[in-house]
Task: structure prediction
Amino acid sequence: MADTYERARHAARLVQAQYAKEAHQTSMKAGAAQAFLPTSAQKNPKSPMADYQRGQADAYKSASLKIEQEYVIPNEMHSPMEMQSVTAHWEAPDRLTLYDKTQGTLGTRRDFAREWSLPEENVQVIATFVGGAFGNALHSWPHESAAVMGAKVVGRPLKLMLTREQMFTMVGYRPYTWQKIGMSATADGKITAISHDSIGQTSTYEEFTESTLAQTRMMYQSPNLTTRYRIAALDVSTPIWMRGPGEATGAFALESAMDEMAYLLKLDPLEFRLRNYTDQDPEKNRPWSTKFLKECYQLGADRIGWQNRKLEPGAVREGDWLLGYGMGVGTFGAHRGSAHVSAQLLPNGHVVLQCATTDIGPGTGTAMTQIAADTLGIDPGRITFELGNSGFPQSGSQGGSSTVNTVGQAVQDACLALKDKLRELAGASQPAFASAKKEDVQLADGYLTLASAGASRAQYADLLKQPGAAFVNVESKPTGTDGQTYSMYSFSVHFAQVAVHVLTGEVRVRKLVSCADAGTIINQKTAANQMKGGAVGGIGMALMEDAVIDHRYGRYVTKDFADYHVPVHADAPAVEVAFVNQPDYHVNALGTKGIGEIATIGVAPAIANAVFNATGKRVRELPITPDKLV
Result:
């Protein structure tokens, strides 16, 4: 601790550490032999991590037309632009304020209240805007605790910001995962069996699990299906969810296997998927709330020029470049939780909304403002949406593609409640308002008016003088039985065209088309940006990202952007995005479904499949680097 950054760095270099050597294991290839069923699955056979079976187990083994292959995802780092930072301020011996990089202000508040035995209301967490996170700010990390302890010792606010090198070792990562898929089908392209095994990495002091096998259980029609998930405890830090958590990992194996099976059958990969399309959820035996994946297939195939794809690899060449096409499908649950939002009308006609949710970059504030403007019928410039403060009405963390579904619906509900309260206030002096429907209430030019009675109006300033002025705090949560009656998912498909240099093995993604069935699209620009960003992340996953550990010492050797490669502008084409834009009113009244995860899920296998179509070389261990192609 020091009063300047330079002094703090100098002091850190003077620290002499002593270590006691112990045997360690950081290699998944060695540690997989001790993989075990997660404790959650041992305790609860219905856990998503438990073994799953429908029909006959491993039925593919007795089939004549089958594949059996192994796939590997290495450790990958989130690497957001903004590094982790926290400022801790003990405003009183029992009152703590944290200005923190977090995806959930209430979760962080709960963690530190528990750590310091404080009432939760004595801890305030502020994270107004977050410069990217992709999952690594869903956890409270040791550096945050260090800052809080340091601030307590010095009796002053203390700021701690990780270096870029520390970001590679202290705040989680996508876990190394080994997978094996066995698949069989009839000669006419109907899948008869799928088996999907996975071993994911965790630490020795925590069990980290993710939904690697979820997509396999419900994406394609198969009468016989088996999934088995295990984890291996290594001497590493704990992984954490990374964009498209679990599903992006599992989709690489599943969608690669679908391509391999299609090639064995001499079928077009898109046609093979259509022949095994599911009209209802085969895992839960429920109808889909909505599913427009076929429409996504058509949109993407038309835009990429899928008709130009050749069945045999290496059939298209431009000079020293081999061209290929590939596709990959993604899905993620359309989750909706509960959230509180407050709304207040000010005398000047502006409306202020508050919610504890955060904005890690997808444009949450913009989307919520737009929902409020549409609901209230006023200009977005007259709306302020305040967020990122644990003192605001409560909400869950921003993650799992659930913010618009959850907070967006709460914003709409709060605005409708505000209109209704204004109607009641105006109804005290004007009977026309008392009997009107809240949908008929309009706000404009400092007055409350009725669409059905143009002469009736009430001035804001007069309404706000009354007791119980125009303020509401609304809780919005799922109601009814839709969640138990329907299977609710977002869907995506990604089409890639790649060029592979025959001499160097360099892979260039020439074109990428991402199409999504994500319900009602609130804002086309922010939604398209989500899809484009996720696609670029998928390019990194496919072609370059690999956090390498020197297993002799148990240390990462890729700890900066010189060694850990991520896509730059030259690596990413202009991503073309298309939305079906069909509402799903089973999820919420807005009809929205999530986008953030499906933007990445399926991109890596689309590129891997395109590389195979170009070269005839199947790379099953990511990333697809030139040495694997020459």
